[in-house]
């Protein structure tokens, strides 16, 4: 009965109810689109970090990530190991590939620049296939002397696809070694500093250059990023890995972690602003409703309706108004998010990035729950004072209202 009365009271003042629903619905849509864009940003950054750079799990010798800068050759992994067989046998693993990190000088003609290099397996490492190619081709095991350069490094060095360059670096024994290769392609990432220094060669060529047979990392790429925690629990119990460090991508992606912290705080501020707007608008609507129905409230209490029921009736009316607006807002938010994702959101290059991108909207179940909760809880909060005021009316004064 109370639910029916609350619904009839909402429908009786249709214009006011429509305005209130639009105010709440607009807040819900704004929150969903904002949260959806942030969710897409998290997803795209996470997938780019894991696929093109870090992998999902990195296995190394203990202390590699903290101390490898001073003596990288002290942390070389063996060329073969039972631990590597365990990693390759994981059902969640999409690939397990070695990486050999090094740095040195690259020369072409009279130009010489420093570089940061990686030796990778083109047949196993997904970072060799999921990166943007501006010119030429990516690395291939069929071209063991092929070299891929970052677009910025190639421009500063003055080379193009097909040019011969020389790499010079320190070897594992402490000497110097150089190899000559051919520029196979030019690549671009989202980070300009990375493009200005990166150089990639096959792991075989890197081992020849460094005169070693090992690798610094075994990079495990999973079928889904969500499997990372599950795989880490498995690796903790593997005796073959007790002498190695297995580090998840979440501990390596410092930029991603800081971005999540920053955007999460910004989203909290957005929610507070939307909640304040809804509370103010609904509080005003409910107060007007109480003033117009003062005589009705007095009559109901004169007929024996308890004050507690009057309070509950107005709270139910506010909650029902929030639920209706929340559901309509969620449906409209889904529609707007889908349309915006189909069109795309062109974004200019951010500071430190080499190119722009096209953003989208991702609506997750958590965003839907947060949006509905925001709509219902804020309207309930906004209804508390008007409902309490209605329940505290003096019967005689309420019956004489406007007379």
Alpha-beta classification: alpha+beta
- Give the spatial strand order of the biggest sheet: 2-3-8-5-7-6
Q: C-alpha Rg, in Å? A: 31 Å
β-sheet strand percentage = 15-25%
Poorly predicted segments:
none
- End-to-end separation in angstroms reads 30 Å
Bin the helical content.
Answer: 40-55%
What is the 3D form? elongated
- Give average pLDDT, whole number: 84
Q: How many domains comprise the coordinates?
A: 2
> What is the N-to-C order of secondary-structure elements (H for helix, E for strand)?
HHEHHEEEEHEEHEHEHEHHHEEHH
Main sheet overview: 6 strands, mixed, barrel
Summarize the structure.
With 403 residues, this protein is of the alpha+beta class.
Describe the structure.
With 403 residues, the chain is of the alpha+beta class. The protein folds into 2 domains: 2-48 and 256-399, no CATH class; 62-243, no CATH class. The chain contains 13 helices and 12 strands. Strands 2-3-8-5-7-6 form a 6-stranded mixed β-barrel. Strands 11-12 form a two-stranded antiparallel sheet. It starts with a helix and ends with a helix. The mean pLDDT is 84.
Protein traits:
403 residues; alpha+beta; six-stranded mixed beta barrel; 13 helices; 20% strand
Sequence-ordered SSE layout with sheet pairings:
Blueprint: H1 2-12, H2 14-54, E1 57-60, H3 64-67, H4 82-88, E2 93-108, E3 111-120, E4 132-136, E5 146-150, H5 151-157, E6 164-170, E7 176-188, H6 192-195, E8 198-202, H7 203-210, E9 217-222, H8 228-236, E10 245-248, H9 254-292, H10 294-302, H11 307-343, E11 345-347, E12 357-359, H12 365-391, H13 395-399
Parallel strand pairs: 3-8, 5-7
Antiparallel strand pairs: 1-9, 1-10, 2-3, 2-6, 2-9, 4-7, 5-8, 6-7, 11-12
């Amino acid at each position: 009965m109370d639910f029916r009365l609350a619904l009839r009271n909402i429908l009786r003042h249709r214009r006011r109810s429509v305005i209130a629903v639009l105010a709440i619905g607009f807040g819900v849509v704004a929150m969903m689109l904002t949260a959806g864009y942030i969710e897409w940003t998290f997803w795209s950054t996470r997938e780019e970090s894991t696929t093109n750079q870090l992998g999902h799990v990195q296995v190394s010798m203990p202390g590699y990530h903290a101390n490898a800068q001073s003596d990288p050759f002290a942390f070389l992994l063996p060329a073969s190991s039972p631990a590597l067989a365990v990693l390759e046998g994981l059902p969640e693993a999409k690939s397990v590939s070695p990486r050999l990190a090094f740095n040195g000088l690259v020369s072409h003609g009279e130009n010489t620049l420093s570089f940061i290099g990686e030796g990778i397996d083109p047949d196993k490492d997904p970072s060799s296939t999921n990166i943007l190619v501006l010119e030429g081709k990516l690395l291939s095991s069929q071209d063991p002397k092929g070299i891929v350069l970052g677009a910025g490094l190639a421009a500063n060095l003055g080379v193009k696809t097909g040019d011969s360059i020389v790499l010079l670096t320190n070897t594992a024994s402490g000497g110097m070694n150089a190899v000559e290769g051919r520029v196979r392609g030019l690549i671009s990432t989202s980070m300009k500093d990375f493009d200005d220094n990166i150089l990639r060669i096959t792991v075989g060529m890197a081992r020849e250059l460094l005169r070693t047979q090992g690798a610094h990392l075994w990079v495990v790429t999973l079928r889904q990023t969500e499997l990372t925690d599950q795989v880490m629990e498995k690796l903790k119990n593997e005796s073959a890995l007790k002498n190695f460090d297995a580090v998840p991508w979440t501990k390596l992606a410092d930029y991603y972690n800081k971005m999540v912290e920053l955007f999460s705080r910004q989203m909290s501020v957005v929610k507070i602003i939307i909640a304040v707007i809804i509370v103010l608008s609904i509080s005003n609507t409910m107060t007007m409703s109480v003033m117009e129905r003062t005589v009705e409230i007095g009559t109901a209490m004169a007929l024996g309706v308890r004050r507690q029921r009057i309070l509950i009736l107005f709270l139910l009316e506010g909650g029902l108004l929030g639920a209706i607006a929340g559901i309509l807002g969620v449906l409209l938010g889904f529609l707007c998010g889908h349309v915006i994702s189909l069109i795309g959101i062109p974004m200019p290059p951010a500071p430190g990035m080499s190119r722009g991108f096209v953003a989208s909207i991702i609506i997750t179940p958590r965003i839907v729950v947060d949006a509905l909760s925001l709509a219902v809880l804020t309207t309930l909060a906004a209804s508390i004072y008007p409902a309490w005021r209605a329940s505290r009316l003096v019967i005689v004064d309420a019956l004489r209202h406007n007379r």
